[in-house]
Amino acid sequence: MKKLLALLLSVMMIFSVTACGSTTSEDEIRGEQKTSEEAYSAGSVDGLKYESTFIGIGCNLPENWSFYTDEQIRELNNVTTDAAGEEYEKLMQDAQLVYDMYAVNNNNVDSINVNLEKVDSVTLLALDMKDYYEHSVDSIETAYTNMGATNFDYTIGKVTIDGEEFDSLDVVAEINGTKLYQTAFAKKCSGYVANITITSIDEATVKSILDSFYVV
Predict the structure, then answer these.
(1) Model-level pTM?
(2) pLDDT in tens, 93-125
(3) N or C, where is the chain less crowded by C-beta within 10 Å?
(4) CA torsion, points 197, 201, 205, 209, in degrees to nearest 10?
(5) For residues 61 and 53, is the Cβ–Cβ distance under 8 A?
(6) What is the pLDDT, as a whole number, of residue 32?
(7) Where are the alpha helices (DSSP H) in the chain?
(8) Under a CB-based contact definition with an 8 Å cutoff, are residues 12 and 99 in contact?
(9) SS3 for 174?
C-alpha cells in the first residue's frame, strides 16, 4: 500500500502549464497584468485543519486522516537542510514545483495533495484551466499505465467548493484489482497554478473530502 501511495504521488507531478496553448496575444495580456505579485507563503496546519491564504483554500479533515509533518513536506520538496520559516519559504519561491500540503488516510492509500506550479504572469492570465487538464490527460494515463493500471477513464468537468466553481479532472483506474478514484481541481494564485488532488479507493470518500474544502 505504501508503494502505491508513492506511485500516486509521482502521478500528480504530471500536470504542466507548458503543454497548454493560448490564442491570446502577449500584448493583450500584458495590458491586463497586475503590477505586483504576492510572494509564495506556505499554508498552515492546525490539528486536522489546513489553510492557505496564499492559495485561498482550506479544509477540515476527519479524525482518521493525518497531515504530513513539516519535515516530510521538506522531503517532498527535496529540501535536505533544516530550513524553516522565512528561510524555507525563500527556497520555495525559487522552486518550479512546490508541495504545500500532503495528507493520508489511515489506510495508507487515500491521500490529498496540494502542490503549486510556478507560472509566469503572462501565461497565467491566458491559461484556460479546462485546456490545462486536457493537455495533461495523455501524460497522466501513461503514468498510470506504467504503474500497471488498467481500465483508465477520465472526465473533465467542474466541482463546487464553498459555492465557487473550479475546473476539475476525475480519473478512474484499476491497479492490482483495486479501483482508484481521483479528483483534481486547480486554482490560479499569484504566480502559480495550485493543484488540489484527492485520491481514494472509495468514490464516496473523494466526495466527502471535496466537501471538507472551503474558500478562504
Answers:
(1) 0.84
(2) 888 899 999 999 998 889 999 999 998 888 888
(3) N
(4) -20
(5) no
(6) 41
(7) 2-11, 26-30, 70-76, 85-93, 121-126, 129-134, 137-146, 203-211
(8) no
(9) strand
Which stretches of the chain score pLDDT less than 50? 18-19, 21-36
What pLDDT shows up at residue 93?
82
d(CA 147, CA 139): 13
Q: Which of 4, 19, 50 is nearest to 117 (CA)?
A: 19
Asked if 206 and 171 touch (Cβ cutoff 8 Å), the reply is: no
Distance between CA atoms of residues 41 and 52, nearest Å: 8
Coil, helix or strand for 189? strand
- Per-residue model confidence (pLDDT) at position 28: 41
> How is residue 166 written as a grid cell?
473550479
Q: How far apart are CA 18 and CA 26, in angstroms?
A: 15
Predicted local distance difference test score (pLDDT) of residue 34: 43
Which grid coordinates are listed for 94? 525559487
Domains in the chain (CATH in brackets) are 2-20+42-215 (3.40.1000.10)
